[in-house]
Amino acid sequence: MEMNFCRRCGAALTHMSDHVFVCENGHTIYGNSSPTVDMLLINSKQEALIVKRALDPGKGELALPGGFCDAKESLEETLQRELMEELDLKPSDYDTPQFLCSDTSQYGFKGEAIPALSVIFWARLRQDNVALTVGDDVAEMLFIPLEHIDLQKIFFPPQRKAIKILIEKLVK
Ligand SMILES: [Zn+2]
């Protein structure tokens, strides 16, 4: 992880491990992963809701809706906010989200690799014809049959893992 100076006093940091750093003034700085929440939404035809990203990283690539937790948000709150912002979906539009899997990855942003911990849920949409509008960070929204998703086109590796797990659960 890239972390060179103490955020408390500005002194140079010594790397103790991949996420623990100390400065000469005795401050210990932790560079833990930032949590993100993603959602795999399925309609009655076993199709997954996939978004085409409008912004970098991964502009033009496919992904699940979701994003980083704000400082004081729970995972549930992040999930609700992101689905509202990206797709105008309310909690009443989908069943109670179920935990699917989690994984770590490096989120490349403006030349920096940010360690991310993705927590991925899934749920069924309550109606197939729910009115969806896309937010600023979404270029397009697609419904793709779960087993026909080209995993190489899914930008974030933890989301590929989640899709594979849900295929095992629902299709096979
Ligand atoms: Zn310091």
Descriptive report:
The protein has 172 residues and is α+β, with helices and mostly antiparallel strands. Helix content is 16%, strand content 37%. It has two helices and ten strands; from the N terminus they run βββββββαβββα. The longest helix has 14 residues, at 157-170. It is elongated and about 60 Å long. The structure holds zinc ion. The site of zinc ion (ZN) has 7 residues, from loops.
Number of DSSP helical runs? 2
Q: Number of DSSP strands?
A: 10
Distance between the termini: 39 Å
Low-confidence stretches: none
**Helix content, binned percent:** 10-25%
Bound ligands? zinc ion
The structural class is alpha+beta
Described by strand count, sense and barrel closure, the largest sheet is: 4 strands, mixed
Shape: elongated
Mean pLDDT: 92
Query: SSE order, as H and E?
Result: EEEEEEEHEEEH
Rg over alpha carbons: 18 Å
* SS strand fraction: 35-45%
- Order of strands in the sheet with most strands: 7-4-9-8
Q: Can you summarize this structure?
A:
By secondary structure, the protein is of the alpha+beta class.
Characteristic terms for this protein:
172 residues; alpha+beta; 4-stranded mixed beta sheet; 3-stranded antiparallel beta sheet; 2 helices; 16% helix; elongated; binds zinc ion
